[in-house]
Design brief:
By secondary structure, this protein is an alpha/beta fold. The protein is built from 16 helices and 15 strands.
Length: 407
């Protein structure tokens, strides 16, 4: 049961800026973090409105409201978060980013982002479960054939392996699953991250610091003089980092990284947008993993669903299959959310000779068709299969499996 309502009710109006651990505002802040941890949330949203402030937690990819604060409490909670994140309390006009250690939250380390909004500063807090052990590829949920392919890619001495997908799709978890496969090898493994999300003994982990000039590109150039075998770059987000990573992959290093792209084929185009020539990209990419995390129906309250036929058409599901879809109404077992856990969908693009030739030409449609002919199972196909099996709703399948272009 949440402690927040009782704490809020007992907090006197016009509470001054908290200075001790016994302050009601401090107890409210800790209760917010404790409840998020109990729910297994990945993020906390503190959202001011005209009359009140909502506290929402992202659980299994969906936002769930956990509390509502009186309007007069908002500024004090913001001040408390800023204090423990070492942010400028007096500055309310511009966005700020900070970090909170586990001692202050009472649960996990956290990354804090503030932005000014109409009714006050909105805060989003990403919870970093650094004490959590990195999972193996099997634990992540890769099918056995995919595991075998990924292990083969990680045994290569040079080249780039990309993991792509939207924010919150588990890209970093997969990267660390690949590192997990190399943990017993006599290799020098170095990671560049922002922030470090898993702490692993036996490898060198470096956190970037943009304001201090410690950028991905600068750290990557320095690492190349440290005799690395495997380099994990948390994200390739600019042309300088992209070109440096490509150079590293061509000079005897295995590079693992992420890109923001809709699917595996789109990753090639994204790399060229960052200034890497298509012929060079085709030569250095070993493979691309595209992934999504989809919410599973709660099996305790799942019932027959009347699907949106437009979604069925987009996913190329015959309308005669409409009776097979399921949707959860919500029950105590799933916290009345209608979903219970998540599962991954994974699309693997292997850079075979034919795919490399088509990459150099730049026709994504032909690349996708050739990959499917070679046996690639698309995200769209997997989403449709899960929906037909009743594991996810047709809405979820359309949201995560349809990228706007039929395969």
């Amino acid at each position: 049961m949440s402690q927040l309502p009782a704490l809020i009710e007992r907090t006197p109006p016009r509470q001054s800026t908290p200075t001790t651990d016994f302050s009601p505002i401090v107890r409210i802040q800790r209760a917010i973090f404790q409840e998020a941890a109990a729910l297994g949330a990945s993020d906390i949203h503190i959202e001011p409105g005209r009359r009140s402030t909502r506290i929402r937690c992202r659980v299994h990819g969906a936002l769930r409201q956990t509390a509502e604060l009186p309007r007069w409490l908002h500024d004090n909670v913001v001040v408390r978060i800023k204090v423990i994140a070492n942010l400028d309390v007096a500055e309310r006009r511009v966005p700020q980013d900070g970090h909170i250690n586990a001692e202050a939250t009472g649960t996990d380390d956290a990354r804090v982002s503030t932005v000014p909004s109409r009714w006050g500063e909105k805060i989003v807090i990403r919870l970093l479960k650094r004490a959590q052990a990195a999972m193996s590829l099997h634990d992540i949920g890769f099918p056995q054939p995919f595991e075998d392919t990924l292990r083969a890619w990680t045994r290569r001495s040079q080249g780039i392996l990309f993991v792509v997908g939207p924010t919150g799709s588990g890209k970093t978890t997969t990267l660390y699953g690949l590192i997990h496969e190399l943990r017993n090898e006599p290799l020098n493994v170095v990671t560049i991250e922002d922030p470090i999300e898993y702490e692993i003994d036996g490898i060198t982990q470096i956190q970037t610091h943009e304001r201090a000039g410690l950028t991905f590109a600068r750290v990557l150039r320095a690492i190349l003089r440290q005799d690395p075998d495997v380099i994990l770059v948390g994200e390739i987000r600019d042309a300088e980092t992209a070109k440096t990573a490509v150079h590293a992959s061509m000079t005897g290093h295995l590079v693992l990284s992420t890109l923001h792209a809709n699917d595996s084929v789109a990753a090639i185009g994204r790399l060229t947008e960052l200034g890497v020539e298509r012929t060079v990209a085709a030569g250095v990419i070993l493979g691309v993993v595209a992934q999504r995390l989809v919410r599973l129906n709660c099996t305790s309250c799942a019932q027959t669903d009347a699907p949106n036929v437009a979604y069925m058409d987009c996913l190329r599901i015959p309308r005669s299959e409409a009776a097979r879809f399921r949707r959860s109404a919500g029950c105590p077992e799933c916290g009345f959310s209608g979903s219970r856990g998540r599962t991954g969908m994974f699309e693997l693009l292997e850079m075979t000779g034919r795919i490399q030739e088509l990459c150099a030409e730049g026709n994504e449609g032909r690349i996708r068709r050739a990959a499917i002919d070679a046996g690639m199972i698309t995200l769209q196909h997997q989403a449709a299969s899960l929906a037909l099996a009743g594991a996810i709703t047709i809405d979820e399948a359309y949201r995560f499996g349809y990228a706007g272009e039929l395969s």
